[in-house]
Specification:
Number of helices of chain A: 14
Number of domains of chain A: 2
Shape of chain A: globular
CATH topology of the largest domain in chain A: Aspartate Aminotransferase, domain 2
CATH architecture of the largest domain in chain A: 3-Layer(aba) Sandwich
CATH class of the largest domain in chain A: Alpha Beta
Largest interface: A-B, 53 and 53 residues
CATH superfamily of the largest domain in chain A: Type I PLP-dependent aspartate aminotransferase-like (Major domain)
Strand content of chain A: 15-25%
Number of strands of chain A: 13
Oligomer: homotetramer
Largest sheet of chain A: 7 strands, mixed
Order of helices and strands of chain A: EHHEHEHHEHEHEHHEEHHHEEHEEEH
Chain lengths: ~350, ~350, ~350, ~350
């Protein structure tokens, strides 16, 4: 049958979210967030996160991340993140633009995660004073770029260090739903209760059309106001905001976001276990969400793709082997997983 | 019956465009503009503008404007626009952010338009050399902030001056459809044939959900590449781009954008003529698109609003009179125009 | 004899200040301000200004201004200054660079000064909210670009309005010595006692080689730290700082700065009165410091220059008349003033 | 006797340069570089570098570096430098400020130098396209942060790679004189002949008060103009420029810069050879200029400092050992070198 496992952003829109957009197309509404849906979002997020929050919808994750980081880092500041983090590798200097020139510093760490010890050592060794970028913020990605999730205890430890050192803690929750589904924790536990100050809450990859939310946990009216100005100044304040907000509303409603994530994660488990059983396939990181990273023989890659299953090469080929990323999604058809595994098995048999 | 005449961005989405979004929700598609619809957009815009163009969809007009201006102005440059232009008054320093600190210089002029003579005089008087912002670009708004349109000859004269002086010419076409419908010219005549280098092509106000396009007329591969980088770096490159692009596709298809604009303009004509006939109502600028600016007695405003017709106060009240903006849209119900005029007439009779 | 009256920055260095530089060239000293002279500057400025201050030496006035403004204005802020102010007209977008894109808004006003009423009206009319640059700071120039000085009462009134509106008040004191000498007030009275939060304290034009000081009156450790980082980040933290600091030390010592200013002002008075007595010469603004702005017949300009007195044309010629700026300095030779006046008189007699 | 070996920026000014400053204090001169000395600088640098160049004096090395890098890197660009380079470690995000947010990428390499192979590999692995910072420039430091010098062949190889890959090559020549004196090459050979596009030419550390020059080798009028604007916009265009320019003039005159450097290098050789002979002292990098990096026992450090010789701890102590930097200068007294070595020997004897 074939299917596209390259990314969760090749998917379309969850039909329920598309329906919500259509339903919102009823008569006029105040622009720029003055509509009822947008005004009600903070309460809905407060329910989910069990605390009062400030919520600013934006359409893109890069915008959410850059806005968040710029709000908690001076232009002469340093931001610490995993060396493979999206904010470092894949956002084309957006954090630098929004922050007015802050520095991103990559930390090493297995499976896409840096440890609290690595962060502590780095901060201890960081030169201080006006000649050097001032340590200002830390950014964690959930799921990480290796498809893993920071555990509640890991985030807590990093959060405690951040508070002690006076650094803000940001979470890039581009795949937060998948992380929470994998961790089996509450949204509160993995965010503000663990010390996260502000969050890029992702919905696009998990069923929305184009909707993310900046969620500010820290009670700080000045910071909230600054974020409002920053969003407008960056051209991210939608006039017909309701069509952005209803995506988030529908995404949260009835726990849809976690249901979608559980489906994707479940298929990722099936897929990764099936692949791991194929000789020559090496699973590179634990699968804790909806992303799978494997190294496999190039002929196997070609055989699978020949059956119509699109795979994402993740690095340059290493001789006859290739690192591949596979991503499942809210709408991954279990039959497609079966089909891919059958294609792999067929090759093996051949 | 009541209706909202405050702005064209209080409207929802043209059903045909909403349908196009729904239709696009079929299976996976390459992300970030690798989908077929996005790849086909340049040809569709080329048809409309009768010349090859580079097209970059973005969701918001402020983003389109700031990206365009930043691409043709160095950080030490000066950009000339009407003193009431949206880029000066209503974008919260977005051009400064994107350009890295360029200066916007407001030019006076009646009915929202500056004349080529004003621009010429300003450029002549501008101090030159490294102590002063370098004259670099000009930005015109179609429709202007007074609801008027620059004529083809006016744009041509400004375009010729820009070429002579080495300045880039940008058009903020947030309501370009309405302007073209009012001018009864071709898209080519009012843009590149008149010297426009790059255009913020607006669709949102005229029926899209959230879709604009940067249209680059100047053949300059370096400039096109820079715009691509700038868009990504600013967090405006959509992953599920197809849902942005199909809005533009449907907007152009069969001349929908001009049909929508003609409807809005026609209702604006009816509405403005009706209002102008009401004693005490003063039409402040010619109505050349879908915006009407009038000064009217506060009791009349209140009487109209009491009937459910929402009006936009445009400045602080002046004693017992108030300047009001009324905007019609692609979906303005003619009965709502009739109703508003009836409410005004009733008040008059009273 | 001839002399150069074009500006006070065509002058060399006060011999006492040059001597202080030479005297400082004794053995090694800690770099980056760790030397004794730099460490002692704050106390010396505190004596002069009768209050504790934070002092950061920099070499250039444009740097001092841009650093000050950036420290009290967010990137989405608006800064109000006279429309002819140096920060608006002559610093090539430096405030925009340093602030990350803040907006400068020019206010009209006679003789280079805007009134508190103009500021109040402007602030009242300023659109508020995230769509618009946020009113954040006011910058006054002493002397103004017309050679006048804001009186203590004028600064007080503006300072009171700033506090009420939550705006910071910056003074560009490029010619502060001349202003104080003209006003016959104390440095405290015209600055912090009148509501000034931070000051660009100029020395270069009045005898230093290249030395200015940022003087922070507001007690705000965070602001002081930010200024330290901003100075370094902008490449304005001198390694051999002592040679910058001794200029300031010698400039203040024994009231040299005010003596120098009084000399320059006295010659400016003589020169302006002499010129005003020449038929056809029109004094354009009151002479309250060391700058004179006159309109005079072009043949008179030519006759004076033919005798070797260099004059600064200030605007394009208006028919047969030309606006001229003349600036006296700490080392203006009274005979040069006599000579210029004689040249003017000779022409008149001719 | 005691002496300060912490850095070459703890020194004062070469008396000949101080004299040149005093000599320049004769009468008025045109401001902002319109003086004769500044106008003549380009020819003097052309003599030294055996090619036509554009020269822009500035006072600080951080400014020179940041201006250079910003001129050849777009805001979405990546700049490659050694991971310990001053532009990365010690300039508090100045390159980010000036460039509008470009990214610095640190390369590993022994003794402060990265190899052309490391650069080639890094460029090969660099992700391309709009999601990633665009490889744009390379910055080399002469001397490096380990006191070594890139050889002519090393620079040539890097220069050739840069040209092939379309990257600009910048040299941070903060200690260029020392490097050239050590390499025994011509200024041309180690710069433009080896592929360097633009240079931060340092004078301050080697005898000037505060003077550096941006030297542009690439023939590119647009780039030269941009640098002029950038310098002014950053507040680095001196009004009394002659006092900056005469430092550079005197620095070059009669090869003073190389004589000064040879003196410093000679003393560094003596000092490093003497120290290397002390048991327990480990020389960490070859001494190819005027900087020495050694690891030595803490008691030895203390014994030397007790005799009045100031040393710069370079990293945190490692148990009972400490990394130390010693820097000689144009005016290092040979007796101070003898004295320090005697103090070390005394301790050894004890």
């Amino acid at each position: 049958m074939g299917a596209n496992f390259r990314s969760d952003n090749v998917t379309g829109v969850d039909p329920a979210i598309l329906q919500a957009i259509a339903d919102a197309n009823q008569g006029p509404a105040n622009a720029y967030g003055g509509d009822d849906c947008t005004k009600g979002l903070a309460a809905k997020f407060a329910d989910v996160f069990e605390t009062e929050v400030t919520v600013l919808p934006v359409a893109l994750g890069t915008a959410a991340n850059a806005l968040c980081l710029s709000a908690v880092t001076p232009p002469w500041g340093a931001i610490y993140a995993h060396e493979k983090a999206h904010v470092i590798m894949d956002e084309c200097n957006a954090p630098e633009l929004y922050s007015g020139g802050a520095r991103l510093i990559g930390l090493p760490g297995q499976h896409g995660k840096f440890s609290v010890d690595t962060l502590a050592t780095t901060l201890k060794q960081a030169l201080r004073g006006v000649h050097h970028a001032k340590p200002s913020a830390v950014s964690l990605t959930q799921l990480t770029e290796s498809g893993t999730a920071y555990s509640v205890d890991e985030v807590k430890a990093i959060g405690a260090l951040c508070r002690k050192e006076g650094l803000a803690l940001h979470m890039d929750g581009s795949r937060l739903g998948n992380a929470i589904a994998g961790l089996n924790c509450t949204p509160a536990e993995i965010t503000w209760k663990a010390g996260v100050d502000l969050l890029s809450f992702g919905a696009t990859k998990n069923g929305a059309m184009a909707a993310e939310a900046i969620v500010l946990f820290r009670k700080d009216a000045g910071l909230a106001e600054a974020l409002e100005y920053r969003r407008k100044r960056a051209g991210h304040l939608f006039s017909k905001m309701r069509f952005l907000s209803v995506q988030l509303e529908a995404y949260l409603a009835g726990g849809r976001w976690l249901k979608n994530a559980r489906h994707a994660n479940g298929e990722a488990q099936r897929l990764s276990q099936g692949l791991a059983a194929v000789p020559g396939v090496e699973l590179l990181s634990p699968v804790q969400g909806n992303e799978i990273f494997v190294r496999m023989p190039v002929p196997l890659v070609e055989a699978i793709e020949a059956e119509g299953y699109l795979l994402q090469p993740w690095e340059n080929p290493e001789g006859s082997r290739q690192v591949i990323r596979l991503v499942t999604a809210f709408n991954t058809d279990p039959k497609a997983v079966d089909g891919l595994l059958a294609a792999a098995a067929k090759r093996r048999a051949a």
